[in-house]
Amino acid sequence: MSGYESGEGAAEETFTSDFEGLSGATSTSQADSLPEPPKKKAKKHFVKYRLEWELKHPNIRKSSEDVYKVKCNICNKDFSIAHGGERDIKTHEAGSQYKKNASGRVKMATISAYLQPSFQSEVAKVIAAEVTQVYHAVKHHISYNSLDCGFKLSKVISPDSSIAVKASCGRTKASSITKKVLAPFLLQQAFEDLQDGYFSVCSDVSNKGNIKLNPLLLQHFNFTSGVIYALLDFYDGDAETTTAIAQQITNKSKEHGLKLDHVGAYCGDNASVNYGRHHSVFQLLKGANEDILPANCPAHILHNCAKQAINGLFMDVESFVLNVYNHFSSSAK
């Protein structure tokens, strides 16, 4: 090998070793300068409510606020079990407030058990007797004044009955039971049947002194009870015009959640204000519901029928009536 080649080889080895040393130093310095990766934090596992806890703790129920809470029926409050689980429940039950509330609950249950059988049952029976008597009086159109006398008579007839002795109901109490108990209950039942069914509306005007009373009556058919009548309202008003009556029927129906689309017929007397050909209550209601039918007053229909029939008789009607009366008034039967 020549001197030139040996010198070139030595120079190449020197350059290679220097480059490797430089690259090693560079990589070491870069590794030292890089930041360490952040350590991952451990996830927190929260404890959820478990149904089997109710077997060991009967006064604990699932909270409606959160799945990480339970509700204590003794203290009537919600508390968290997210961190300790059942241990939190045991800690709560070991507290002084829980023990105090539990002791009060036991005493209250003892008092209720002592009073409930004799108090509630007898009071409920007395109330039921009074309401039943009022319902009987209303159904058979008996005066409220007779109820007071009837209850007093029951005490004399049945002195050994504690219900008869304690029951009492005069005119004022009977009126309150009718207006505030029976009427709302019966109307609610009627309205439940009328929500999806069809019904007819009846209106009339009655004078009592200087007051004009306007009853609104509903009639519908129930497969269980047959034909049912319900008094929708009984208002006083001086307006007897066609528009006023139709407006009252519309307003009262909407107040009770009834739809005019479900009205099948309108009933009233045969006056022109109700059944006039051009402007009447029936025509106004028909404008809102074209399927509504007229249901004329049957009493007026019979009256008109008898009137026309009498005009066609070939006899003196007054003489005929007097002869019939004289015959039956002097008859032994």
TrEMBL record:
Compositionally skewed regions (Low complexity) per UniProt: 1-13
Residues covered by region (Disordered): 1-42
Alphabetized PANTHER family for the sequence: DUF4371 DOMAIN-CONTAINING PROTEIN (PTHR37162:SF10), HAT FAMILY DIMERISATION DOMAINCONTAINING PROTEIN-RELATED (PTHR37162)
Protein name: Uncharacterized protein
